[in-house]
Amino acid sequence: MSKRNKRQQRTADVVTSAPVVTTPVAFGFEEMLSELEAIVTEAQNRQAEEAEAA
To answer: Residue 12's pLDDT is what?
Structure first.
């Protein structure tokens, strides 16, 4: 009798796509400015926290 090596079955990884992001129809200057201000505020807060931690 011959011995056979058992091979493990490989399962394919399931790739999920990124969620669909809808953009507003009218994204004008004021909306862009408020988004930019929010980004700057978050960056300033993060820098302050990093300075406190150091």
So the answer is: 66
